[in-house]
Amino acid sequence: MLLAVAFFALMDAGLKELAGSYPPMQVAALRGAASLPFVLAWVLATSGLRPLLKVRWSLHLLRGGIGIGMMATFAYALQTLPLTTAYSVFFVAPLLITALSVPLLGEKVGPRRWTAIGIGLLGVLVLLRPRGDGLMSWAAFAVLLAAAGYAVSAITVRILARTDSTASMMVWLLVFLATGAGALAWPSWVPIAPGDGWVIIGIGLAGALGQYAITEAFRTGEASLLAPLEYTALVWGVLLDVSLWGVLPDSITWLGAAIIVASGLYLLRRERVHLESEHP
User: Fold this and answer.
1) Are 92 and 231 in contact (CB under 8 A)?
2) What is the pLDDT of residues 134-178, one digit of tens each?
3) Rounded to 5°, angle at Cα 202 from 198 and 208
4) What is the C-alpha separation between 181 and 171, in angstroms, rounded?
5) Which stretches of the chain drop beneath a pLDDT of 50?
6) Phi, psi for residue 214 in degrees, rounded to 5
7) For residues 228 and 170, what is the distance between their CA atoms, to the nearest angstrom?
8) Which residues 6+ apart lie within 8 Å of 223 measured at CB?
């Protein structure tokens, strides 16, 4: 899981590099196209193509559309936001997953978990403190949209996992990213600079390795123990911000991130207690 977080952080650093030169929708398309060959090679070497064909197409299409919007909005945000700030806001996603599980999956969420969700959202307000440009910048709002899209996508994964293979979920998401975002980006497509070729390859490789690592982590480990390790992305965000762009988060960013992370960790603990009480 720690390797997965590290690979995804490196991928996001590459996306931030591209976001300064290419439109967000094109960055989303390049993300899908760059990882697809690596993932397809892994699928061919393991399960073959058969698991890719018997799938629930309606949910894959929905997840593909959500994935395009999520990646484009996150790339838009990375044009101006440091990785650390983007990650801090994005950490609201686990809270949203729990909240959305009530209307979409019919799960029960007790008052303590609702309280944790509310406190986490207050942490977001701390991050989006009033500035000269208003309470919320468009970039921060874009990260919130990306987090909401991630939460809905995670819910669809939980539904798809009942019938479809992990390989199909990985491959079709990347296919829809590459083709769907590519079609939307085509009218304003910017020619790829030769020097960016290595960045795009790096994004593809890091994204594919990250996806494989997180799949193996959740396949062999306990989700409630692994999920808190996702917050180590904040450490990678700081290291990459400092080393590549010379940016350090301010004290208010740290405070907002601490509130959100603490709420998420408490929520994970309560969910584990809830599961243990249901299965003595």
Assistant:
1) no
2) 335 788 889 999 999 988 888 888 788 888 888 888 899 999 999
3) 150
4) 15
5) 132-135, 278-280
6) -70, -30
7) 22
8) none
